[in-house]
Amino acid sequence: MKNVTDSFVSLGQWPSAGSFGFNTDILATNLINLGVVLGVLIFFGKGVLSDLLDNRKQRILNTIRNSEELREGAIQQLEKARTRLRKVEIEADQFRVNGYSEIEREKLNLIDSTYKTLEQLENYKNETINFEQQKASNQVRQRVFQQALQGALGTLNSCLNSELHLRTISANIGILGSMKQITD
User: Fold this and answer.
1) Full domain range(s) for residue 146
2) What is the mean pLDDT of residues 46-57?
3) d(Cα 76, Cα 85) in Å, to the nearest integer?
4) 156: number of Cβ within 10 Å
5) Considering the domain boundaries, does residue 166 fall inside one?
6) Single pTM value for the model
């Protein structure tokens, strides 16, 4: 440390202006050399450094401008997307409401058609029952008629002689023939 202070003190003892010689004090000569180099750099490098800084400043400003433009574009796209989203949500709600009402409508239509089908089946069942009752009644009538006819024939056969018997059979055959023609 003492050498550093001695160098500064020795700076005050420079040789007088007219003489030329070598300064052997390394610290003093280094400070002078540094001062000269810095002065030359500042004088000649000032324009280059200024240009470099201006170019860097312009690039930063351009980057900021581009970022702002991209940000504005992104904001506009976001607003468009939000608008489309709102529109799609409204349409989805409408489809949902329409779907629910359509489901209710279809449900009511299905219930109505089921009731109509059940009513038709009930009518068919009643018609079938009536038809079967009439058929059974007709069959019973035919059997009663046949039994009555057989009983009458049996009575006639036992009571009649052959000639009367033949006439009665002919008359009954005629009656049955005319009944057959009526039913056909």
Assistant:
1) 31-154
2) 86
3) 14
4) 14
5) no
6) 0.36
